Amino acid sequence: MAERFQNFIDGKWVDAANGTAFDNINPANKTDVLGSFPRSDHRDVDRAVEAAKAHFATWRRIPAPRRAEILFRAGEIIGRRKEELAHLMTREMGKVLKESLGEVQEAMDMTYYIAGEGRRLWGETTPSELPDKFAMTVRVPLGVVGAITPWNFPLAIPTWKLAPALVAGNTVVLKPAEDAPLMAVRLVEILLEAGLPPGVANLVHGYGEEAGAPLVRHPDVSLISFTGSAEVGREVAIACAAEHKRVSLEMGGKNPILVMDDADLDLAVEGAIWGGFGTSGQRCTAASRILVHKRVVKEFADRLVTKAQALRLGDGLLPTTDVGPVINEAQLKRVHSYTKLGLKEGARLMCGGEIIKEGDCRKGFFYAPSVFGDVVPKMRIAQEEIFGPVVAVLSVAGLDEAIEAANTSRYGLSAAIYTRDISKAFRTIDGLGTGIMYVNASTIGAEVHLPFGGIRQTGNGHREGGRQVMEVFTEWKAVYIDYSGKLQRAQIDMS
What we know:
By secondary structure, the protein is of the alpha/beta class. It folds into two domains: 7-251 and 459-478, Aldehyde Dehydrogenase, Chain A, domain 1, CATH 3.40.605.10; 255-439, Aldehyde Dehydrogenase, Chain A, domain 2 (3-Layer(aba) Sandwich). Helices cover 38% and strands 23% of the residues. Strands 14-17-18-13-12-20-21 form a seven-stranded mixed β-sheet, with helices on both faces. A five-stranded parallel β-sheet has the order 9-8-7-10-11, with helices on both faces. Strands 5-6-23 form a three-stranded antiparallel β-sheet. Helix 5 links the parallel strand 7 (144-148) and strand 8. The protein is globular, with a radius of gyration of 24 Å.
């Protein structure tokens, strides 16, 4: 009998109002059910938002350094439970254990980092244009924050959103992805253990159209912070615009690695393998396009294929596993449909391209690491986010052509270049339209104290991580203090 989990609303663990539930399945082993979770609807969302709204006035009055201390304690608890959380994460969403350990570390790092912001929350002081008058700016919380998070980083991304929202004085309703709800339960439990008052953070499980959409549309939610696909993000943005509410979007990527003819090819291949097949390619920063100088494209592609074919598929808890499963059957079919599309478009399948059903892989959703050659920029496999272990190799005549081809994507999240030429590196930093840029490193590996996000259809201008994230979760207030003892009429008295 699978363990039964509940929503967390106004300090209580409760079932969905409709009494229905869904199962959380290990993608490496479909017979391993991690638990049963509430299939919530608008009634549960309404209750959660009502609770968050009711507790906002009290929570915002707690001094920010005190709020930060709760987050710091949460980071310490995450650290103590690192191994346990990582094992659970691998069972829940499939990434190999070393990656899960890295994600738990990232969640801890983000919580510690944002806790430090509780003693800053930078405002400004500036001279007034009038005598005996003081001018400054302060940050104030927004109110109720709706956080909608994906399954590929089921602990790190919720901390990216909840930590800054809470330290700024907001209350939160979290709606995690239905494919990875258990890590959200653990995070809420940790926050409560760290001393977070009841009702400040609320958790509602369920499907996007049944629970996520009502959260987006709710008139008492001041901000929606969403991470997911560009298609869903567009609908979120439209709904938020109709309600005149703030929205922060972190969406897809079609991230290029540029490999120049002077590159260290061993290093570049390692970067392409890690970027393309880490987390089974299920990262918004995954390196799904490799633009290689024509002088070295054959050698690079041959090395890449050799390495890709040597990757071992399996349960991420096994030390022999290099690549775990994709998240579910629908995603497995989607990935395979792109293989068929690539072949139809005229690309050359150099390895992989098949669903793996042999041995232990027959129990889960496994796709062979795949490499396409003879790809051109206009092909859909070079333009659309596949979100699986599929990498396209494109041949380019030089740096200018590589930059031009890289910029044809509708996305603009992350990019990398491998070169020994500092001039090429800086020209690429300047020329590529992305929010993140790596030199002689892959497209994944962002650090929490730098801003994370992109341009075009990757996002809407906001950033997660770094001190810039506080711009999302706070509002500016300008303050004027006139101690002159007389009426001063600003520009009128200055004329």
